[in-house]
């Protein structure tokens, strides 16, 4: 059908989801936010008071979980066992511990299987940490998006829900801590694929980044 798969990886707050969503919309592709899947699992575990150390219990529950990503205007909606959780999975409570659950090897295998199925028919823009390396190693376009920690903290700060009291420094520390966990975990850590194109977006606008990626897709196709 002439469609490609596009993998977009990078650290927290690099703007991957905004960019991936827009690229998908420009190409009429489906956007898949894999971080939302790890967040949905984390939200469920917090709600049921299951700790990341309780690996067997986590896995038993994960296998029965129904996670759905539904394309919606302006992005995607996330459903957990039929209940919409798009908002709550973005809370700082979930953000603070998601990297602890996402280290669990069999949990990753389970989600990666789901993600691969979503991309079988091509025409998917998927963002995450291990898409180009593990989930879709054959993706036709692979982008590794980065930006300085300060810039990423600043971007998050600007989009923050003003009811959450947090300083820019605090955000920067939280982002740096999550990067560290994501980069140092044993199973498919955050790392750029050898054949990924690295985009440092520190001083690029969203439009520029989107244009750049769309152009690469056109060239490949
Ligand atoms: O992309 P987002 O910041 O929403 O991802 C939340 C967390 O989910 C990441 O910090 C990481 O621990 C985990 N994640 C992952 N692999 C992915 C996507 C997200 O481990 N492909």
From TrEMBL:
Name recorded for this polypeptide? Cytidylate kinase
Query: What does the UniProt keyword field contain?
Result: ATP-binding, Cytoplasm, Kinase, Nucleotide-binding, Transferase
Q: What class of enzyme is it?
A: transferase
**Where is the Cytidylate kinase domain positioned along the sequence?**
6-216
Secreted recorded as keyword: no
Where, by residue number, does ATP bind? Answer: 10-18
By sequence similarity, the record places it as follows:
Belongs to the cytidylate kinase family. Type 1 subfamily.
Under HAMAP family, the record lists: Cytidyl_kinase_type1
Q: Does the keyword Kinase apply?
A: yes
Q: From which domain of life does this come?
A: Bacteria
| Enzyme Commission no | 2.7.4.25
Query: Which catalytic reaction applies to this protein?
Result: dCMP + ATP = dCDP + ADP; CMP + ATP = CDP + ADP
UniProt cross-references to InterPro entries, sorted A to Z:
Cytidylate_kin, Cytidylate_kinase_dom, P-loop_NTPase
Q: Which Pfam families match?
A: Cytidylate_kin
């Amino acid at each position: 059908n002439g469609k490609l798969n596009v993998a977009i990886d990078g650290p927290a707050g690099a703007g991957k989801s905004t960019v991936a969503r827009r690229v998908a919309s420009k190409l009429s592709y489906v956007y898949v936010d894999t971080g939302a899947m790890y967040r949905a699992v984390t939200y469920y575990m917090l709600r049921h008071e299951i700790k990341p150390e309780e690996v067997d219990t986590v896995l038993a529950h994960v296998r029965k979980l129904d996670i759905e990503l539904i394309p919606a205007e302006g992005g995607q909606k996330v459903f957990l066992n039929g209940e919409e959780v798009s908002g709550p999975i973005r809370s700082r409570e979930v953000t603070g511990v998601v990297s602890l659950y996402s280290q669990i090897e069999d949990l990753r295998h389970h989600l990666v299987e789901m993600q691969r199925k979503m991309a079988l028919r091509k025409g998917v823009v998927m963002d995450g940490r291990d898409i180009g390396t593990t989930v879709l190693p054959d993706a036709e376009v692979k982008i590794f998006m980065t930006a300085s920690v300060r810039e990423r903290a600043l971007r998050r700060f600007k989009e923050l829900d003003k009811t959450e009291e947090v300083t820019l420094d605090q955000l920067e520390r939280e982002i740096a801590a999550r990067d560290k966990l994501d980069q140092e975990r044993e199973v498919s850590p955050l790392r750029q694929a050898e054949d990924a194109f690295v985009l440092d977006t520190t001083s690029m606008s969203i439009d520029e980044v989107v244009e750049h990626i769309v152009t690469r897709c056109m060239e490949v196709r």
